[in-house]
Amino acid sequence: MAAVAGLVLxxxxxxxxxxxxxxxxxxxxxxxxxxxxxxxxAVPPRPRDIxxxxxxxxxxxxxxxxxxxxxxxQKNDVQTEEVFKGAPVCxxxxxxxxxxxxxxxxxxxTEGIDPWLSGKRNVDAKLVSIDGFxxxxxxxxxxxxxxxxxxxxxxxxxxxxxxFRPTTRGAFTQExxxxxxxxxxxxxxxxxxxLK
Length: 196
Fold this sequence. Notes:
The protein is of the alpha+beta class. Helices cover 19% and strands 31% of the residues. It has a seven-stranded antiparallel sheet. The relative contact order is 0.21.
């Protein structure tokens, strides 16, 4: 799980294992370490703040929602690697016929979504809306079949990040992966609103 977040922030890709994709040229702005900075797009305001403090990420999906996204198993975890260290994570496995995949729901309380949209990380990110909240749809720069994350800005310096990653090679296009990530993020946000 940490490997994917590490790839997003450091730059290796699936297309050429071990070869880093150079980040886009930037000028220093005094942003946070790890590629932070101001977004290059105007991030709209949230309808309200929803703190992730004390939330169990696996409780963000009801049994009916898990069935909707075809998840058969969940497991609570905590991020132990440097990137978002200490963040609660829900790891989920699923299948759609012979296409296998996993989701991860991360509760990040050390950073909002702005750095994803700053152009200073090794990602292609675009501003989207998830259940009325500003969000970033993210993929590792230079890849088309690795993973897709949706990071929802829920409060100052907090994001609910949902990742979709196929484990069956070639089973999903990049667009399908991002649709699935956004769908799961929407379901998680619907549940989060009822908890807070």
